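Example complex used in Figure S2.
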Amino acid sequence: MSTGNMNLTLKVWRQKNKNSAGKLVDYQLSGISPDMSFLEMFDVLNEQLITKGEEPVVFDHDCREGICGMCSMFINGQPHGPKDLVTTCQLHMRSFKDGDTIVVEPWRAKAFPVIKDLAVDRSAFDRIIAAGGFVSVNTGNAQDANALPIPKVQADAAFEAAACIGCGACVATCKNASAMLFVSAKVSQLALLPQGQPERYRRVQSMVAQMDEEGFGNCTNTGACEAECPKGISLENIARMNRDYFTAKFASEEEV
Amino acid sequence: MSSLSKAFTSSIGKKFVMGLTGLFLISFLIIHVSINALIFLNDGGETFNVAADFMGHNIIVRILEIGLFLGIILHIVQSLILTQQNNAARPQKYAYNKPEANSKWYSRSMGLLGTLILMFLVMHLYHFWWPTKVAVYTHQEHNTFQNIVMIFQSPIVVAVYILGVVSLGYHLLHGFQSAFQSMGWNHKKWTPVVRTIGVWFSIIVPLVFALMPIAVHFGWIS
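Predicted assembly (478 residues):
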C-alpha cells in the first residue's frame, strides 16, 4: 500500500500500561507517500509491526476528518505537529521532508494518564463537562426556532467557543498543563447564550472546581494553548471565564 | 471552605491575586521612576533630595511602604505555590518539546525573571533603603543623592543594576498585559490599548531606571 518515496525515522513512545515506565523506540519507515495523513503513516507502521509479529502502536483516532477531537500525538515538540489549526489526522506527510526524524509522544499531564503507548485517558475533561457544562430545557413541544432573539455577534462568539473539540492540545502544550482554554470554551459557549443564563454562575464555579480537582496546572497566560488549538479557540474565553468566576464568587449568593 | 475563601485559593483566584499585586507593584514603579527622574534636573540632587526626604518621612508614605512590602511578599508566596502546582501537573516531561513555536521565552520564564529581580531587590534595598532607615531612626541627616553618586562609582554595581532592570523589563513585558487577562479584563477595543501601553511601559520605565546609574557613573550628572 506504500506508494511514495519518503524515508523516515520515527521515535515513538512505547509504554505497556499506566503504571509501567515507557521509552522512545526507533522505527525505520520507507516508501511513505507525502499525500498520506500522519495517522495513515502510523497505519503503515502498525501493519509492518503486525507482519513482524510485534505489538502495534496504540494511538487514539476516530473520525479522521478533524471534528471528533480523538487523535492526539505530540509530534516533534508540538501537539498535532507543526501545522496551525489542524488535528493529527489532517496533518499530511508533505509537511515533513524525506529523511526526517520524527519524535512522537503522548500528551503529558498528570490529569491525562497514559493508557498505553500514545493513548491517554482524557476522561478528566468529561468530568469537567459533567460538573456543569449543560443547560436545562423544558420537555414538551419543540419551541419556535426564533422564539429567543440572539444578536449575531453573540451567536458567532458562542459558536466560535463551541468549536472546541476537547482534544486536549491546550493542556498538552501548556508549560503548566493547564486546562483553562478548554474549560473556558465550554463555559463561554453557554454563558454567551440566553439558554445558558439560569445556570451561568453555578456552572462556572462547578466546572472550575472540578478542573482544579483533576490536577491541571494554573494558567500563566503564555498563549501557547491558543497558538496550538486546532480550532482556534481564543484567549478571550479565558478572560470571560475569569470574569464570570469572580462575579459568581463575589456577587452570587448561591454557595457552590 | 466558604465561597469567598475558595475564590482566593482556586486556580483562578490565585491568578487574580498575582495580577492584583502585580498591578499594585506597577503603580509603585511609576512613583519610583518619577522621583528618580528628578536627578536629570542636574541641580546637584537638590530637588531629588527634597523628594527623597519626603518619601522617607511622610507618614502616609510610611504606611504605604508596609503595604508595598506585603504586596511583594504576597506576589512571591503566590508564585511559589503556583509554580509548585504547575510542576506537579506534569510529572513526566516531554523528551522533545518546542515551546518557542507557540510562546515567548519571557512569558515562560516569569519565575526565573522574578528571582533575578528579587536578588537585585535585596542588593538595592541594602544600597539605598537601609541607609535611609538608619538615618531616620538615628535622627541623622542623610543625603540620598550623595549616596547614589558614591555607590555608582563601581562599574560592577552599574552592570548589575542594568541586568536588574532588564530582568524587570522582560518581567513587565509579560506581566503588564497578563495581569489584565488574569483579572478578566479582555476586550476587543481595550486589550490592544492595554498591550501597547504595556510594551511602552516595559521599555520606558526600565530605560529611565538604567539611565540613572549610567549617567551618574559617567559623570553626566554631578
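Residues 122-137+147-251 of chain A form a domain with the Fumarate Reductase Iron-sulfur Protein; Chain B, domain 2 fold (CATH 1.10.1060.10). The first helix of chain A runs from residue 38 to 51.
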